[in-house]
Structure formats: structure tokens, C-alpha cells
Design a protein that fits this description.
Low-confidence stretches: none
Organism: Candidatus Planktophila lacus
Number of strands: 6
Function: IF-3 binds to the 30S ribosomal subunit and shifts the equilibrium between 70S ribosomes and their 50S and 30S subunits in favor of the free subunits, thus enhancing the availability of 30S subunits on which protein synthesis initiation begins.
CATH class of the largest domain: Alpha Beta
CATH topology of the largest domain: Translation Initiation Factor IF3
GO biological process, one term: ribosome disassembly
CATH superfamily of the largest domain: Translation initiation factor 3 (IF-3), C-terminal domain
Family: Belongs to the IF-3 family.
GO molecular function: ribosome binding; translation initiation factor activity
Strand order of the largest sheet: 3-4-6-5
Strand content: 25-35%
Number of domains: 2
Shape: elongated
Length: 160
């Protein structure tokens, strides 16, 4: 019957009694499966972990710069790993680094949550922050903001 129609006979369930077969265009079926897999790959998000390094003796302006970079990463939907590096005698005072990481977590609390609390590992203390928004939401929000900015620029150009 399949040869008469010009299609393929595909065995669906060989373990069933009797085995189940279906008449279909197998090439088209394989193509549709490949398309669905490609679309699924495009829609999946890749979570990136960005790393920022600090020292306990960081100056205020440098701290603000690092904090702004962390906020930018988090708004982009990426996770941020903050590494506090202790050198020399700084290793005897890990509580200073812990306090600084706690302060940083409080400063970025509106865009992030603490995924892994500060933990001492040899000369380094690490903490991981996760974004409150998902990456897909963040990307969509950035696209909308970019489109609004371009629209405003076009309107300003038309007025001139």
C-alpha cells in the first residue's frame, strides 16, 4: 500500500503485539524533527558566570566601579562570581572580606540574590550572585529599550 501511494512504511512500535506501522513520508518526518530540535536550541538560554575580583583594601571609588559592573552583568541575566583575594597579612582578617561581600550583596539586592554565601577557600573567598530576572526577560527588556531609544533618535532627526 505504501509503495502504491509513494510513501514509506515506518514501524512505530516494534514491541507491540502485533507490531504497529504507519504509512508516512519519512524524509519529511525527519526534516520536521530536525526543525523542532533547531528551534529548541535557539530558544534555550546559556547562563554565563561572570567573575569579578576584589581585595579587602579596595577604595570607595573602585568599589563603586566594580559594583556597577556587577549590576550590569546581573541586569543582562548573567550570574556573577565574586572572588575576594587575600594577600599576605590580609589572610589573618577574613572577616573584613566577609563584611565587604555582605555589603556588596546588600547593595545589589534589588537585582540579585545570593546563590552561594561567602565561603573561604585557601587565599580566596567566593560568593555567587544570581539575577532576579531570567536571561530571556532581561534580553527582551534590553531589546525594547534599544528600540525605544532608536525611535526617539528618529523622531529627533525628523524634527530637525
Amino acid at each position: 500500500m505504501a509503495d502504491e501511494i509513494g510513501l514509506d512504511l515506518v514501524e512505530i512500535a516494534p514491541e507491540a503485539n502485533p507490531p504497529v506501522c504507519k504509512i508516512m513520508d519519512f524524509g519529511k518526518y525527519k526534516y520536521e524533527i530536525a526543525q523542532k530540535a533547531r528551534e529548541a536550541r535557539q530558544n534555550q538560554t546559556h547562563i554565563v558566570v561572570k567573575e569579578v575580583r576584589l581585595t579587602p583594601k579596595i577604595e570607595n571609588h573602585d568599589y563603586e566601579t566594580k559594583r556597577n559592573a556587577i549590576v550590569k552583568f546581573l541586569k543582562g541575566g548573567d550570574k556573577v562570581k565574586i572572588t575576594m583575594k587575600f594577600r599576605g597579612r590580609e589572610q589573618t582578617r577574613p572577616e573584613l572580606g566577609f563584611k565587604l561581600l555582605q555589603r556588596l550583596a546588600e547593595d545589589v539586592a534589588e537585582v540579585a540574590f545570593v546563590e552561594f554565601a561567602p565561603k573561604q577557600e585557601g587565599r580566596n573567598m567566593t560568593m555567587v550572585l544570581g539575577p532576579t530576572k531570567k536571561k530571556t526577560e532581561a534580553v527582551a527588556e534590553q531589546k525594547a529599550a534599544r528600540a525605544a531609544k532608536e525611535k526617539a533618535a528618529l523622531e529627533a532627526a525628523e524634527e530637525k
